[in-house]
Model the fold of this input.
Amino acid sequence: MVWVDQPAGTGFSPGPPTVNDETDVANQFMDFWKRFVDTFDLHGRKVYITGESYAGQYIPYIASAMLDQEDTTYFNVKGVQINDPSINDDDVLIEG
Done:
């Protein structure tokens, strides 16, 4: 199990934020994940992407980017889980 504070510059992750949108977040994570898999020789392992709260905005983009690669050597996505997700603008969720 690997916990990643994503994107860089949020939560406990150091460094300045370097993303502008969810596509940038997905690209940044994909780069990290591929290097991580290579470093620890985890090729072909099942990948489950999970998150909570605002990860409801990021997880779909990350999962989609991984699936679009059609490369199970690095991105063998088997499932996603989002707990208490933020899935829309706050004003829309408040009305719900």
Notes: Residues 22-39 form the longest helix (18 residues). The chain is about 40% helix and 15% strand. Residues 53 and 75 are 23 Å apart (CA to CA).
